[in-house]
Amino acid sequence: xxxxxxAASRAAQVLSRPTSINGLTVPNRIVMAPMTRxxxxxxxxxxxxxxxxxxxxxxxVGLIVTEGTYVGHESAxxxxxxxRFHGEEQLDGWAKVAEGVHxxxxxxxxQLWHIGMVRKQGQxxxxxxxxxxxxxxxxxxxxxxGKAMTRRDLDDVIGAFAEAAADAERIxxxxxxxxxxxxxxxxxxxxxxxxxxxxxxxGDPVARTKFGAEIVAAVREKVxxxxxxxxxxxxxxxxxxxxxxxxxxxxxxAILAPLAAAGVDAFHxxxxxxxxxxxxxxxxxxAGWTKKLTGKPTITVxxxxxxxxxxxxFVGEGSEVKGxxxxxxxLEAEEFDFVAVGRALLQDPEWAAKVLQGRFGELAAxxxxxxxxxx
Length: 375
Ligand SMILES: Cc1cc2nc3c(=O)[nH]c(=O)nc-3n(C[C@H](O)[C@H](O)[C@H](O)COP(=O)(O)O)c2cc1C
Description:
The chain is 34% helix and 16% strand. It is of the alpha/beta class. It has an 8-stranded parallel barrel with strand order 3-4-5-8-9-10-11-14, surrounded by 5 helices. Helix 1 (5-15) packs across helix 9.
């Protein structure tokens, strides 16, 4: 399919409008989605990580959400190649990442992460720490194989997120994103499949949101009032694509309202295909519902630009064909405010520049080989 000039210039125009999140001006609507890369031995992001992010900022990505980075709790992660957001050397590395992105004209937030019951084996420095979660359950399991978190554990993890957010502000980041998606710790609380607690943190959707909301509130308390706090969440889980935390808009509202009240400035609604309607009776996607229910700036994501002919059609499994026009219509209608791009930005560091300049013919189709490099 060929790219018409008017479609290309419309894409450039709509995507290049600046907008803001709690006072932070983001120069355009393109967000780099958080993507774990495992290129940080010892948890320290090095010079190659600095240039990986700076290159994408220089090529016009408006807001970078970093790969998930472990908060300072012994059970937060399992890999010694995932960057940590605690420790002097690690934070020095991160400070250079923020500096590099700012020098290239971009904005950047770290994605703060605790993997909870996804933890299978431990690598240094916390090889012997247990896997922890709301009920000690892995996704799909009926019997606990990990530790159901005690009051002390909850407080420790909440404190670790708050500490990381304070560090993020201190070392020059523009905000933080809390990883509440994809079946990791915060999401394990949100989802009844992994949360069987009978205390105040389990039960109905509001109770299941209490842990996430307490993290947000603790973060909010430790950072300046104008430091943006983004919350990423999803229905789907890494090991259960069909899982849902909310079956209806009312249930979604019960989850999002306490998070917004605790101080979330923007939501990042993670879907695998952005064009799918979330609930019957409306075309709104998950980000659209999130914005409608909370009134907060919202980021959509999911299979944007994976097709080499971006202005052509995206063909999703079992779904109708959607072109870039559909995405632009939704942005213009303010269904959501930002579009996050994952794999297409791994494939092509220049992706944003090409799209913003209407150079669609230069976009290459996604190839999974790009997962293996940090170019
Ligand atoms: C290699 C890879 C690593 C990812 N790591 C994370 C992560 O650390 N945190 C997160 O919230 N999502 C993660 N995701 C999901 C992406 O942020 C994004 O939501 C997903 O890839 C869909 O967007 P895309 O279709 O544009 O790639 C990852 C995806 C990929 C491909």
